[in-house]
Amino acid sequence: MVGTELKSFLYLYGVGGALFLGTFILAYLRGSFDLKSNDDRRVVIFLLVGYAAYIGFHAITQFILPGSGGTP
After folding, report:
1. How far is CA 13 from CA 9, 37, 67, in A?
2. Which pTM was predicted?
3. Segments in 1-72 forming alpha helices (H)
């Protein structure tokens, strides 16, 4: 069975990811960026990697670090 923490994590980044992806699609359809341009492609990659890094950092602080002990 999936714990409450994992459910909230998946909900947060499921809904947030859908909105994030939706804004990318909308921006692309409106012509806000062109994937043929190196500068625009670099910005898109930076945003996607940044979002993934944020998810990874949140996962580490929510799931791994609390179980590692530390000071009470």
Report:
1. 6, 29, 22
2. 0.78
3. 4-29, 38-59
